[in-house]
Design a protein that fits this description.
CATH topology of the largest domain: D-Maltodextrin-Binding Protein, domain 2
CATH architecture of the largest domain: 3-Layer(aba) Sandwich
Helix content: 40-55%
Structural class: alpha/beta
Oligomer: single chain
Strand content: 5-15%
Number of helices: 22
Shape: globular
CATH class of the largest domain: Alpha Beta
Number of domains: 2
């Protein structure tokens, strides 16, 4: 099964940044490029859309289908590499050449667009489209909302983070089932170490796998409220007891030898962390569903031979969080530029509500081994892995967006630095929180 490239690129590009000075220096060039790249929202009434090459296989057939039946309202689409797109849209979205349909990842980026008045509140437009809105899994649709108003609509597959397990490795250590609680996981760590096995694989060199542990633990301990307080900019929100406890538990797990030796030099970008689990050198791996596509390249018979098991992140006893809640990449989204005319807005939304998540769109995604965030899709999915992940998504009371995407760009940059210090034992939980508190409001 091929996990969506869009999800993989979001995850694997987490730690790549651009210098602010460089962005300013090329601002004029980007603006000129925007003028020539398919026309903007205000350009002669044309409808335009920018997206990434990663999502082109889904979006291009959909737009072609629309253009064939709407020759008078054709959508001109342009596709860019993920990082190129981020650079170009940063300038174009605030210019007369803004694309009508603005591709984004929700979270901190969408919030900044809304704050600057760059995208439209489409809540009223969607009020009469219940047949369309009811198709989408609510927890994923919610990522397109700010203060209860809808500014973005899901447009791609969904990719939560799950616990991967090598059943052969676990069986040799006397472990017959997935850990239901954190205490169960700690017990399994001891059993695996006693059996001479590395308990958990972790791609620390890439840094972004670190966030999966903190975001799940904070959610299991305190529910969604602590991180929401951080997003809301409440003073000292990073010092919430749930955050302090989560970072303390992470360091306790490290001291207990929970992660494979040398984890700080293991790359997740090359699937080295996945290889440790698949080849039997580690029992567990916490990773996004995008990692599944790499299994066959490491061992083509691993899944067929029944060695793989997946499970939700364990519950924390006494925690406020629902153990069915998930975290990861809910989707990418379409928003409508605030510079779009009423005619352009109507055409753009007509396209989205009629051609996104219709039968052909969903089929295109499923044929690529992806999981559409729509209700009742399970019978159409192929393979136990996809069906189990879809059930997790459907059952989840909340789907927390990966923190690096949800945070503001400034906070996200500091987050990587502080996580690296925390996991390498160079800072304490208090020092982590104190440093992150300084990013609130930035």
């Amino acid at each position: 099964m091929k996990i969506p490239a869009s999800s993989r690129k979001i995850a694997r590009g987490r730690v790549k940044t651009r210098a602010a000075a460089a962005v300013v220096a090329v601002g004029v060039t980007i603006a000129l490029a925007a003028c020539s790249a398919g026309g903007g929202a205000a350009s002669n009434g044309a409808i335009s859309a920018w997206s990434t090459t990663a999502d082109k296989p889904n979006i291009q057939p959909s737009i072609a289908e629309w253009n064939k039946s709407h020759p008078e309202q054709e959508i001109t689409a342009d596709y860019f590499g993920t990082n190129d797109f981020k650079d170009k849209i940063r300038t174009a979205v605030n210019s007369p050449q803004a694309p009508t349909l603005v591709y984004n990842w929700g979270g901190g980026t969408l919030k900044s667009y809304v704050k600057a008045g760059l995208v439209k509140d489409i809540s009223k437009d969607l009020a009469g489209e219940k047949d369309f809105t009811d198709k989408i899994v609510p927890s994923i649709a919610d990522t397109g909302k700010i203060d209860g108003k809808t500014y973005a609509i899901p447009a791609s597959s969904t990719a939560p983070v799950v616990l991967y397990m090598n059943k052969d490795v676990l069986a040799k250590a006397g472990i017959s089932e997935a850990p239901a609680t954190w205490d169960d996981l700690l017990t399994d760590v001891k059993k695996l170490k006693a059996a001479g096995q590395a308990p958990i694989s972790l791609g620390g060199q890439s840094k972004w796998p670190y966030l999966m542990w903190i975001e799940y633990l904070v959610d299991r301990i305190g529910g969604p409220q602590p991180f929401q307080a951080i997003l809301d900019g409440k003073p000292d929100a990073w010092s919430d007891p749930a955050v302090i406890k989560a970072t303390t538990m992470i360091q306790q797990l490290i001291k207990a030898g929970g992660y494979a030796n040398g984890y700080a030099s293991v790359s997740a970008d090359t699937n080295a962390d996945l290889a440790l689990m698949v080849t039997g050198r580690a029992g567990f791996l916490l990773q996004g569903t995008w990692a599944y596509s790499g299994i066959s390249g490491i061992d083509k018979d691993f899944v067929k031979d029944g060695k793989l098991e997946i499970a939700p992140f364990p519950a924390v006893e006494g925690g406020k969080g629902d153990p069915k809640s998930i975290a990861g990449n809910p989707s990418v989204y379409w928003s409508v530029s605030s510079k779009a005319s009423p005619k352009q807005t109507k055409a753009a939304l007509d396209y989205v509500t009629s051609n996104v998540w219709n039968d052909s769109y969903v089929k295109t995604m499923i044929d690529q081994g992806q999981i559409p965030p729509v209700q009742g899709v399970a019978p159409k999915l192929k393979g136990d892995f996809s069906k189990q992940v879809e059930q997790m998504i459907t059952d989840a009371p909340s789907f927390q967006q990966s923190w690096d995407l949800a945070l503001s760009p400034a906070a996200s940059t500091e987050f990587w630095t502080q996580l690296d210090l925390l996991f390498n034992g160079s800072s304490t939980p208090k020092q982590f929180s104190d440093a992150m508190n300084k990013t609130i409001g930035k």
